[in-house]
Design brief:
The chain is of the alpha+beta class. The protein has one domain. The protein contains two helices and four strands, in the order E-E-H-E-E-H. The strands form two sheets. It has a two-stranded antiparallel ribbon. The chain has a two-stranded antiparallel sheet with strand order 3-4. It starts with a strand and ends in a 6-residue tail after the last helix. The structure holds zinc ion. The site of zinc ion has 8 residues, from loops.
Amino acid sequence: MNTEIPCPSCKSAIHLETDALLAGTHFTCSGCGATVSLSNGSKPVVSNAMQEFEKLMKTQGKNPK
Ligand SMILES: [Zn+2]
């Protein structure tokens, strides 16, 4: 899914896909060129995106009770 997070450096919105992020893709801020990735130093914002992603996964759960 597509989402956006605030750049940890310049606070611009960085558009990214959470599934690509989880796969290890790096995203670059169009404002300042900062790189955002799962293994980089932006875990607070990344974990936010991951929580949103997991929430969606649960919402679309295969076996609802
Ligand atoms: Zn930036």
